[in-house]
Design the sequence.
């Protein structure tokens, strides 16, 4: 039987399928079901910068009302994130203690000065790695793309310098120079890049004239964008790459591996199908494909499709776009 064993962020995984950050990974009961189903690791549901700000603000208010001026001054002098939501830390400890597979913490952040201290607390919780989900909407017209990228690099650098566990960065596809950003982050010591995060896109209710927020599960066609960039970046960076979004079956996972992914994230399929059957079908499908094609290990075929018949990877760039547009006319 083919071996699905792999490494990601320096961690040994029994297979490349990782349950990405979602409510299913935030509770020990459901995380154990994911482990039993066969996932190689989990990424714990993200904690958001706003959650930590709110908790610290509430503590400020309580101390101010009690007249504890000395304690209040002490807190203000320290990093705002020094305390952080204790429930999140305790949950990380419980997950790490209750699971045998690697546990990757996730923080959703944009401000470097708010996260360094909290990252240390996450590391002390015993998790195996940390994923930074840089969810930022650069709406300031006075800030150009270079400034945005420098700000994000500063965030990553500050946290990278403070923790010893492996750090991965979950990127947006909207950088002006994505390849340059990826190379820059690798030079900072990042062990892996996750392609890509999915922004929550608000809608408008035309009757109430209010914004409406709904969580939309991914579609199989969402695979194509990260697939292209995994293939492109595989030729440029030496750090690990994980593909996230659009993985609903074994075929999608195999495509990700052929493009050069070290790990394959899944989430929406865990909600569309019973957790056990979804994971099992994907893993069995990968094994069956490997047997048909004579591959004993993932390394035997990982990244085979990062290059094309053109010899320079352009099949994932412009050449085929030009050909297809010509056919449509």
Sequence:
């Amino acid at each position: 039987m083919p071996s699905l064993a792999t490494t990601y962020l320096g961690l040994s995984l029994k297979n490349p399928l990782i349950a990405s950050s979602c409510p299913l990974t935030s509770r020990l009961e459901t995380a154990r079901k994911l482990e039993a189903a066969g996932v190689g690791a989990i990424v714990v549901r993200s904690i958001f910068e706003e959650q930590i700000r709110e908790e610290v603000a509430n503590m400020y208010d309580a101390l101010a009302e009690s007249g504890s001026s000395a304690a209040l001054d002490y807190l203000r002098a320290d990093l705002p994130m020094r305390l952080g939501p204790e429930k999140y830390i305790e949950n990380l400890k419980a997950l790490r203690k209750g699971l045998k597979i690697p546990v990757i913490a996730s923080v959703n952040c944009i401000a470097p000065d708010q996260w360094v201290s909290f990252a240390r607390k996450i590391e002390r919780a015993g998790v195996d790695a940390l994923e930074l989900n840089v969810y930022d909407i650069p709406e300031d017209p006075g800030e150009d793309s270079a400034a945005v990228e420098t700000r994000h690099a500063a965030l990553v650098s500050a946290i990278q310098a403070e923790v010893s566990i492996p750090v991965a960065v979950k990127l947006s596809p909207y950088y002006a120079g994505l390849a340059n950003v990826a190379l820059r982050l690798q030079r900072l010591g990042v062990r892996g890049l996750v392609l890509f995060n999915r922004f929550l896109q608000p809608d408008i209710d035309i009757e109430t004239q209010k914004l409406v927020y709904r969580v939309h599960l991914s579609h199989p066609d969402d695979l194509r964008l990260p697939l292209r960039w995994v293939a492109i970046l595989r030729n440029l960076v030496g750090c690990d790459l994980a593909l996230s979004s659009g993985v609903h079956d074994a075929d999608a996972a195999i495509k990700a591996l052929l493009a050069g992914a070290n790990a394959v994230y899944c989430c929406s399929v865990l909600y569309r199908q019973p957790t056990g059957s979804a994971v099992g079908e994907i893993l069995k499908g990968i094994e069956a494909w490997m047997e048909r094609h004579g591959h004993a290990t993932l390394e035997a075929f990982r990244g085979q499709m990062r290059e094309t018949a053109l010899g320079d990877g352009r099949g994932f760039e412009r050449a085929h776009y030009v050909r297809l547009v010509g056919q449509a006319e």
About this structure: Confidence is low (pLDDT under 50) at residues 58-64, 66-84. The two ends are 47 Å apart (CA to CA). The first strand starts at residue 6 and ends at 8. The chain has one domain: 6-328.
